[in-house]
Amino acid sequence: MKVTIKDVAKLAGVSKSTVSRVLTNSDNCSERARQKVLEAAEKLNYKPNALARAMITKKTGNIGLIIYQKHKPILSHPFYAPIVEAIVDTSRKKGYSLFIASDQDINASSAELLLEKRVDGIIFASFIDPSIVLKYKNLGVPLVLLNNSVDIEGISYVTCDNYLGAYKAVNYLVQKGHTYIGFLCGPLQHRSYTERYKGYVAALEDNGIKVQEDLIRIGESTLSDGNRLMNQLLHSTRIPTAVFASNDMMAIGAIKAIKKKNLNIPRDIGVIGFDDIEFGTLIEPALSTVHVDKTKMGELAVELLIDEINKNTSTSKKNIIPTEVIIRESS
Amino acid sequence: MKVTIKDVAKLAGVSKSTVSRVLTNSDNCSERARQKVLEAAEKLNYKPNALARAMITKKTGNIGLIIYQKHKPILSHPFYAPIVEAIVDTSRKKGYSLFIASDQDINASSAELLLEKRVDGIIFASFIDPSIVLKYKNLGVPLVLLNNSVDIEGISYVTCDNYLGAYKAVNYLVQKGHTYIGFLCGPLQHRSYTERYKGYVAALEDNGIKVQEDLIRIGESTLSDGNRLMNQLLHSTRIPTAVFASNDMMAIGAIKAIKKKNLNIPRDIGVIGFDDIEFGTLIEPALSTVHVDKTKMGELAVELLIDEINKNTSTSKKNIIPTEVIIRESS
DNA sequence: GGCAAAAATGGGAACGTTACCAGCAATTCT
DNA sequence: AGAATTGCTGGTAACGTTCCCATTTTTGCC
């Protein structure tokens, strides 16, 4: 554990400069020296100390993923989990090690910590306060926003096309003859939900359908809130013939509520969700939804961050992954 | 970004030794000096360089989580995701930063990398080759095994009580009058599945029921394999009246297969799974299963690792979390 | 074989921190 | 009052690398 470059140098009979050259760049060194060094390193089971290296190169080869976590399940949330998985895989593939942290406070204290540890860059997933983004941006920290966007010039982000996805979903329901469509909406502080909200409104208006306030129910993006809000709709004077939920968890909660009322899906009420989480296919009826390529989002976030680290501005900073409606049994 | 301890010292009018003392231990320094240093640090927005600190203290405050990933979804697997979430949370609570890596090869190459980065310890989740464990153990690396155990003296691990959980589940089925009980089994290389296998066999034998080879179907621990293996059982000459699946994903696959045959659950065939993943409650019928406290497993793994790092041997090295049968609708 | 150019090498500084030790001032004790 | 103890302080040496530059060795050419 304590074998250093000096030990390798001594055994190989060269200077530590030479060892360093062989082990890093390998240019400007003789074949004879290379062999001796490699042999010695192997024999001593030498592992370079990445800390010491980072001290002088100013690159740790580490990046951070920070997920803002207001509600408990976030890493294990069926929407984020595949994204995180993709980030883990892509980081490794690109030669970076990954710190993962989740923040409960909005001040991004994990970010401070990771910055002390000198990560090369940070991915902020889910919600983040724009002022925090601006602060780090001004500090020159390479960063990428994931599933959240901010109107600050020069900030890279990856989102999916929330607006168009919602628009297409609602438009589909209208094409199917629905005119009285409920909307179970997640918290509007989160940009993705405001976009989905706008998509819902626009689709109705473009089809000449008046937007009704009491069809729109806003709550947390959880199964239980989906259930609760759907029950509200089911107990209103006029029951919608279809419901668009701004995420699948809410949609699943809604389905539970509808089935409990002994109403048939999709005959009595059609349901369509958003996110395309894995378990949407397992419930009955299988959930119609808006597909989001979560793996792609994770991959892209890492690639964008690495571009940011390398000041490679060739790639576009703003990436909006297309979304598409998937019709299964619930609509 | 480039403000160092030296800058703080200059502004505060003291030596860098004093600054270091104030910022780390804060013992043996005057109140006057402390104030000046704290003020200067604040003013300059000084952030200590954790790399330089780690160089000399030999402690990075970082730990690594390595998940062996033979099949694609692992981090986003409904069993592992809550464990990982608990590990993230607990690490932060205990003041450690967490690297997460997943390994596709069994040689644990991520471990090598993390060791170069001088993590203070490593949690190995899921399967790992005992020879790798032994190698790192001998190297003196603090490590903890999670959801896997190895018969090597002095290795800490956290598992759940696979044997007893399986035993109790099968015993329950027997008490309900079943005597011809199928078993959908995950890969036996993984220790948790061999334990569950043993529990199945023991429960039958203790009840005087002969273990029938053709009732036991071994495959991957996936939904699709659960489906496939269940179909095999459904097409055999004698169809079991109940099925025990060694994990919930297989159980859900089995339920799909049974329902497709238009058989009733639990009337025609009872099903019981293992793991208690979230979505077991959402399918129909709600899945009976063996509950595993995944959050506890994650927490304990981190705590054990930190004990290991601090050479604190007061806590038990072998932690087996109790499991309990939860009966819902499928049995 | 001599000389210039190129290639390879080694020594030391640097990265930013903490650990160690010696020194100095202030306080306490006899 | 002098000695002993205590509390603070600053200088310097680490930690293990890579970078820079000067030096040595090799190569290429006539």
Task: Please give the count of helices of chain A.
Answer: 12
Largest sheet, strands/sense/barrel of chain A: 6 strands, parallel
Radius of gyration of chain A: 26 Å
Residue-averaged pLDDT of chain A: 93
Strand content of chain A: 15-25%
**Unreliable segments of chain A (pLDDT under 50, ≥5 consecutive)?**
none
Relevant CATH superfamily of the largest domain in chain A: Response regulator
- Which series of helices and strands of chain A comes N to C? HHHHEHEHEHEEHEHEHEHEEHEE
| Largest interface between protein chains, with number of residues from each side | A-B, 47 and 47 residues
The residue fraction in helices of chain A comes out at 40-55%
User: How many discrete structural domains of chain A?
Assistant: 3
CATH topology of the largest domain in chain A: Rossmann fold
**Quick one: overall form of chain A?**
elongated
- The computed structural class of chain A is alpha/beta
What does this structure look like?
The structure is a homodimer of 331-residue chains. Chain A is an alpha/beta fold. Chain A has 3 domains: 5-57, 434 Repressor (Amino-terminal Domain), CATH 1.10.260; 62-160 and 295-321, Rossmann fold (3-Layer(aba) Sandwich), CATH 3.40.50.2300; 162-291, 3-Layer(aba) Sandwich (Rossmann fold). The first copy, chain A, contains 12 helices and 12 strands. The first copy, chain A, has helices at residues 5-12, 16-23, 31-44, 50-57, 80-93, 109-116, 130-139, 162-175, 191-206, 223-234, 248-260, 294-309, and strands at 62-68, 97-103, 121-125, 143-146, 156-160, 181-185, 216-218, 242-245, 270-272, 289-291, 318-321, 324-326. Chain A has a 6-stranded parallel β-sheet with strand order 2-1-3-4-5-11, with helices on both faces. Chain A has a 4-stranded parallel β-sheet with strand order 7-6-8-9, with helices on both faces. In chain A, β1, α5 and β2 (97-103) form a beta-alpha-beta unit. In chain A, α1 (5-12) crosses α3 (31-44), α8 (162-175) packs parallel to α9 and α10 crosses α11. The radius of gyration of chain A is 26 Å and the shape is elongated. Chain A starts with a helix and ends in a 5-residue tail after the last strand. Chains A and B meet through α4, α5, β2 and α6 of A and α4, α5, β2 and α6 of B.
